[in-house]
Structure formats: structure tokens, C-alpha cells
Amino acid sequence: MSLVAGFVPIWLLTAVGYAACRGGLLGEAVASVLGRFVFHLAMPAALFLALSRMPLSGLAGRPLLAFGASTTAVVGFGWVSAGRLFGREPGERPVWGMAAGYVNSANLGIPIATQILGDVSFLAQVVLLQVLVVTPIILVALDRHSDPAGRVRVRRIASLPVRNPVILASLLGVACSAADLHLPSAAGATLTLLSGAAVPAALVALGASLYHAPPSRAERAERAEPTERAEPTEPTERAERAEPAELAVITALKLVAQPAIAYAAGLALHLPAPQLLAVVVCAGLPTAQNTFIFAQEYGVGGAVANRAVVVTTTLSLATLATTATLLG
């Protein structure tokens, strides 16, 4: 199967999700329900199986170094430029940097890796790098800026691996690999079946999330009625005016700069063609939905984070196919 042909099922399943949501076939909550199923059950099963079967010698190699270099460069540039170019407050800058360089290694990464790369081995390493290194840095910065006294909630950050099923499954997979443990055949078969649902469910959920139903007549009437609302503050108005420019820069960083840096780093490290393809494709994945979740949790940068996820996810279906074709 050619690389371009490998994207056809991705596009078709995404289109199926969009059409099913638009036609009301699966209900309004389909994207949320399928997303939770993938995140809490199917995706952890897939990552656990991949990591438990991967020798530890395959971790932290040159491909991961190349990907890490692209992530560091783009997240760092986005973090700094949010303040210098767009005047974002210190508490908002981590979200800006995350939107520019934190890839969707789960919901969209697993289908892409399975269909185009043939397995999720390298993607599992990307997940570990992001959740064990990048995420704590982002959370520490957000915690410090959200607390009036500048304190960091260490207990909350330390408990993240237990509260996040993707991180927990990844760590358990690494532990099983290190101890050379093998699951009973029934448990392995069950996880294999469950992990097989990750790709189609994630893509249908992605397509459903791209459809936004038009407002009802009652909602339009409510919006049209004048209500007593507080006047927006100057920073909010400025953020709304700056948002298109910010979104353009974030999209360029995420879908162009990050894979380009990963490609250059991969060439410098003399990666063979299959590893180079894996590194560049993973670096070209869109902004992770965790960006919006963190922005909501801390009440900063929510509008930019939300639109960055939607725009980069939509455009990445084309940019990833182009990248795979050029490298292929």
C-alpha cells in the first residue's frame, strides 16, 4: 500500500464521523463519548501492548532525540513569542507554547502511526516524552502563575501518572518490558481486541468533533436579545483582535516548522528513511486536545487553544499526507 493510499481510510472514517454527526445518526454527544472511550480504554490498551513488547534498548534513541529537538525548539519559540510578539501575560504563554509544539500523539497519532508507519512503537516513545517530560514543565509553569503566591502544587503534578490512563498504561508497559513479563493469553487477546477499536473510534470521533451544529431558533433569539453584561476588559478585546494572527503563527509552527526541524535533526543524526519518516510524521501531528483541557483548567488562553486544536487538526490531514508523500 502506498503512503497516499494509506491516508484514504483515515479520510474516509473521518468523513463518516462528520456525516454521522451532521445527520444526527449518533447523537450530539458522539464525539465526547467516543473520545472518552478511546482515551480511557482503547488507547491505553494499544500503548500498553506496544511498550510491553518493545525492548528498553529501543527507547531514547536517535529518533526520539530528533523529535525532542523539534519539540523543544517549537514549544520554546512559541512560549517566548507569545509575550514578545503578542503581549500575552506570563500565565498564558505556556498554553501558547503547548499549542505550537505539543502533538496529538493519542487520538490522531495512533490512527496515523498504525495506518502509515505500520506500528505505534515510536509513537509510544513520543507519548512518554510528552507526558513525562513536557507535561510536568507546562503544569509547573501554569501552577506557579495561577497561584497568587506563586506556589506549585507538587502533589497534584506528581499524581498525574495515576490519574491519566494513557500515562499509567505507558508506564505499566515499560515496567512489563523491563521485567520481561508476559500477559496470560486471555488477557493479551482481550487487550488486542480493545486496542483494535482505537483507530476507527478515534477517527469517527475526530470527524464528529469537526461538525458544529447551527444554533437553534431559540438560541439565535437569545443571542439577539440585549442583556445587561459587563463591558469586556481591554485585554479580552485585544486578545480577540490578535487571535487570527496568533492562530496563523501557531498553525505555521505546528504543521510546518516542527516537522521541518524534525527532518533537519533526523538528517543530522543520519536516521535511516523509515525512522526519519516516523519522526517527521509524528512531529507534524496537530495540536493535542490536552492544550485546551489545560487552558480550561487554569482559565488562560482558552480561545486560542480551542481554535488551534480545530484548525491544526483539520489542516493536518492534508499536510501529513503531503509529508508522507514527499518522504516516501
Automatic annotation (TrEMBL):
The keyword Signal does not apply. It is found in: Cell membrane. Belongs to the auxin efflux carrier (TC 2.A.69) family. This is Uncharacterized protein. GO terms for cellular component: plasma membrane. Pfam families: Mem_trans (PF03547). GO terms for biological process: transmembrane transport. The chain crosses the membrane at residues 29-51, 63-82, 122-142, 162-183, 189-213. It comes from the Bacteria. InterPro entries: Mem_transp_PIN-like (IPR004776), Na+/solute_symporter_sf (IPR038770). It is a multi-pass membrane protein. Keywords: Cell membrane, Membrane, Transmembrane, Transmembrane helix, Transport. Residues 216-242 are annotated as: Disordered. Residues 217-242 have a biased composition (Basic and acidic residues).
